[in-house]
Structures
1.
Amino acid sequence: MTDILTLEGLTKDWFGVPAVSDLTLRVRQGACLGLIGQNGAGKSTLMNMIGGIVAPTAGRMLWRGQPYSPASAADAAAAGIAFIHQELNLFSNLSVAENLYIDGFPRRLGLIDWRRVHARTREILARLSLDVDPRLSVGNLSPGERQLVEIAKALHNEAQLLIFDEPTTSLTARETERLFDTIAALRAEGRTIVYISHILGDVRRLSDDIAVLRDGRLVDEGPVDAFPVTRMIRSMIGRDLGGLYPPRTAAPRPRPVLEVRGVTQPGVVEDVSLTLHEGEVLGLFGLMGSGRSELARILFGLDPHQGGQILLDGAPLPAGPRGRIRAGMAFVTENRRDEGLMMEASIADNLSLVSLREFGRRPVGLIDPQALSARTEAARTELAVKAGDIAVQPVKALSGGNQQKVVIGKWQMSAPRLFILDEPTRGVDVGAKYEIYALIDRLAAAGGAVLMISSELEELTGTADRILVMNRGEIVGGLDRAAFSDERILSMAFREDAA
Amino acid sequence: MIPAATAPPSASPPPFTPRRGLGARAGDLILSDYFVLYLSIAYVAALAPFLPTLTAPGNIVNVMSNMWPLLVVAIGQTFVLAIAGIDLSQGSVVALTSVVGAMLITTAADPAVLAKAPIWGLVLTEGGGPFAGLMGGVGLAVMAMLLVAALVGLLNGTTVAVLNMPPFMVTLVGLITISAFAIWLTQSENIARLPESFIKLGKGDIVSVHIGAKDSPQIPRREVYSFVTYAMVIAVGVAVAAHVLLNRTIFGRWVLAIGMNRRTAEISGVPVRRVIIAVYVISAMCAAVGAILYSARLEAGRPTLGGGTFLLDVIGAAVIGGTSLFGGKAKIIWTFFGVLFFVLLSNTLNLMNLSSFQVDMVKGAVILGAALLDVLRTRLMQERRR
């Protein structure tokens, strides 16, 4: 098989600091290359060079055997290279067809030839088995459908190489399956795929070859058959982690912290009961739309519920998040950027937000700056946040993993009894994931209770003492650590109602 | 990963500091809290040779007396901008509270002027307002002005915080209705004859300086310059209190947190609605204090105070200082320098004998320049973080 894209000694320096150095890599025609690496390993810079966004400092690229040096994103698209990004590049106010044709509409008598536009769009959508009207605006589509529209755009531009960058982050399990079927179909048409993801199982499943980047260099490559997940991780972080998950250091105690009895909100959750004990990590698994995040919001007082009771340490809770925080609850939501952090504010300001009241002196709430900065500095040390001066550096400048540590840390400062963690490792690379799992273990060992919600089953079986499964707003079953079985959990999560 | 950033910030200074280029130093200057102050000084230094009256003691006194009321109102606006809101109703609150204060304490009213006003007979008679000649009447009137403002602020804040209506809309409606109400109250007439103890708040001086020949025993009035006035003490007092409130208290942190990201603040337990309401109350009450200073200086309650381009001056001064219209970024000291620069600008343009239309055109251009400066600052900050 020939190579469709060859990179020879490709290098990119940013002010003398190499982001990618001397990288030589071949992408085989018609194959799928899995590209992995931690955040900051140089994947984005590499993709930006291929996509014509940044110019390499040294080295060259060959596209179908010819020298290739794109000066803009349009050059890359014209050559037949398409990017499917994690943040989709669609105009949500325009229709599906308009998005496909945004860079040039066919015209008849000086006006747009809508008949041709819609017919051709319909034909492409049919190839992807996406059954939507080309005139429907993209804003009305689900994340999975939008992704397929991105792919349709690539097909419309006759792309030969499709580069997927973390395409599944906002997809449900079903939509992910559908995306994988589509990728298989694209390959059957002879197109070439580069698949970039932190979800190593997906990368193994889709790829023929694996390439690992670390610190801007290609550190390992080979056929997928010789590339078990352990080798992927070892190559990515440059050492053995000694397993993906840290060992649990303490066992749950019998005293209940959170008791939920028959909580019901029509159309959202139905008769949910659960008990969470001191020192316990309780995993809550469910597909998107199963009500897991909605339950978390109800427990924290952000959303209302009609029936049932929620008790913390045996006492009923006041309404609303403020009362529940005072009672000892903490909530790390799934949306770190919009609900967890003030991106522009400093690390210290973010860390202190929840527990500010403790540092105010009456009568006007004058803050004691020494006590506050001593406390935030201690939190930073404890969390091992990799940053400069935390009073100055904004959280925006931190990596995803360090940002998440700040979110967990700001709650930890108020010493809560119950932590609700919704997707705590989303968008976090492998090394930092391990640190977050270790942090979760420490929270539990210190006597707190942790309710951990995740759509990655593997991380729940790796960290939880017990797993409950939600399906259509109900808790449909639970397993203790000794009885964990992916198969049983998945079958409960996917089970369709008879009705 | 941030490899080079793990050095402890408190480490002793490195033995060798490379010389920093001109560009880096210019960047430091633009990012400094004092940039607008330097700009003001440079502006005065550049114009002084051409406008000798600019640095004359009389003009300096004039600039300062123009600064104080504007500063107080702009401080209120700074709090609102800090939560990513805007308060367009401030000018109308100045007008309403000016009328309310004056009608309570005026010592005599002319029926030929005010007999058609709806307050005639009800509050106002030929013998003046209800508090005229009363012991502590001025104090009561000031309280009434603050109370009226607080009610307007409460209404604004509650509508914004609880009904989630856009602050631009809410306060624009406030601007239109309240200023119309103030004009209707007196049928557009001024209420004059205010007691001396009230007028002192705007014009009275505490420390005066005599500049001139010391040969005659009688000092001519025009050679006495008021440097420390009651208005200055009030304005600086408000500024210091506002600075402490915004920078050193829990409330201030909450204000900035809401401006930065309201969702995050809510989930982190910040009493978001209460803080928003309080901020609009602060804004309106600052407008009332501004109204005290303006009315005392005018020696009258005037229902058209705070009209025209007043709002432009207030928001312009805050933004030139560096407060962001997007919220989360505000300092009282920035507003102080912004007000200084803005007042200097108006003053110099007047000294150049430009018409008020020409003055407004230049002011508009300067505000545009300030917005550009904000963009430049943001870009510099981002580049430095790399």
2.
Amino acid sequence: MSDGTAGSLAVRVEPWTAAAAELGLEPEGRVNIGWHASDRHVALGRGAHKALLWEDFQGRERSYDFAALARLSSTFAAYFSGLGLGAGDRVCLFLDRVPELYFGFLGVLKLGAIVQPLFSAFGEDSLHTRLEDAGTAAVVTQRKHLAKVRALRDRLPRLRHVVVIDAGGLALRAGELALDLERLAPVEDFPVAATGAETPSVLHYTSGTTGQPKGVQHVHGSLPGQYLTAKVALDLRPDDVYWCNADPGWVTGTSYGIIGPWANGVTQVVLDSGFSAERWYRFLEKHRVTVWYSAPTAIRLLMREGAELARQFDLGALRHLASVGEPLNPEAVVWSRETFGRPFHDTYWQTETGCIVITNRPGLPIKAGSMGQPFPGITATVVDPHGFEPVDRPGRIGLIALRPDWPARMRGYWGRQEAFDARFRNGWYLTGDRASIDADGYFWFVGRDDDVINTGGHLVGPFEIESALLEHPAVAESAAVAKPDPMMMEVVKAFVVLKPGFSPSADLELEVMNLLRKRLSPLAMPQEIEFTPSLPKTRSGKIVRRVLRAQEWDEPLGDVSTLMDE
Amino acid sequence: MDELQKMILDYVRREYLEEEDDREIGLDTPLITGGIVDSFSMVSLKRFLERKCEIQIPDAQATPAAFDSVRSIAGLVERIRGPVAV
């Protein structure tokens, strides 16, 4: 049936119910992501099928089948249980992409606790904000990240345990525990928590324009969403070898780097290494990767290295390519067709949506530069930003809005009901992104509707950066905005007003950059700092970032009548 | 190890390793692929080199491959400025 909404598909199907049935879920029954991603495959007789093939930057490999994944995640669950952790406790995984991250993730979920993965490059301030807000009970980390956790310990009274997975020989302090997975007695049959569809599962933090980052709360009932979109939009089949470039510190790395592919019983390969075009191609060739989920920034970095390099490798196993994080530029689609013999398919979604919601799914003709069409089961449109009604004609720009009725949608912002409620208007979930819909029902991304900076596919909030800038003794006030960048789409640019007695200099610029890199993260470090005598403000004294942003993007300044005179 | 390499090595150790991070960094340690310096942090490293060595490193030459070890970074600096004393 047609629901008459601009941009939605003409035929509305209910794919989530069918997906739930494929997963063996019963209405109102139990569902546990940890069990479904591991033990279920053992129960189905696929325990010997490879689940994870991990490789580090030195080429060292470790391989685990689904039986091992089930056992090791249960071992983690039992270990956490032994620490007194249980239902609802927040357990943070502050780890590089090591195998323990994957076992720990499923183990926390089997326990019925809430898993809080955090990007291991986060600095002290970013880490503190997120651990304090979540009231995290335990952090699992590595010795190379331990100093950052130790520095915060006194300020986190609710943090009971710090677990170090590679502590061997290190002198640990009170409340710190060494976990050597190889020495733990393996647990084959952990009593998986009786979680239901609305039981909290994963807590990811995301940035907004105002205030500190918010915890996006997901539930175990998201599973059909991640399962079906991984199966259809990423075209995953049981015998695929799949590589997702994303770090599980971000939602792509959990929804499509853990949950979706393993719910489908697919072999995942993980490369714990920084970027190198040659290294990546060699990895794709060596493991005969068939499905590759990457990001526009990475694709552009590969493009910069040239197609010739790619042609030195046998990438013939590649069957399907997809991309996420920021709009995929048409040149990247054309380049991948020429270089890999197949295009990258753009997918659109957010931390809050939990799964892909608009996409160039296989079989749908690609319009290069378009986000594609709503995934079956998703009602998506573009609404005008005032009345929140769907736009009345193709090409009109508005806010991307979704009917909040799919299983993987967020259930709340941690402890912030008001912020959560503000995302809904007129029965629509507002994504905060602007787009238009063409006459064929394809969505075309325009930009953010707020001051959030999308750098290399990661959202960075200006408030967090500006707060950290104020920690520098020379900084009086500041504003952080997005600046266009050919590789990262956007990078952070900071405008800084210095206190009396301080002068702009290259040394000071570098000092401030390094301060933010270490306290927040490399993503949040301004790639450029402009020292300025003043910032544009309203007459009430509020800094107006949009004027600075418009300057960077060479766009009209808009209404400046309310700004304070210089 | 020459003066330039030593200066870069000292800076990388000081700025990019945490207190408890006991990894040894040498001239050929992979910095980018090894996860010590990421593609975002390359900008501050580039800025440091430009300021300290009084050069301009073209963006096209500031690639992950060129920044993947202290030796390759020093080589890049040498090519741009010529082999003069630090």
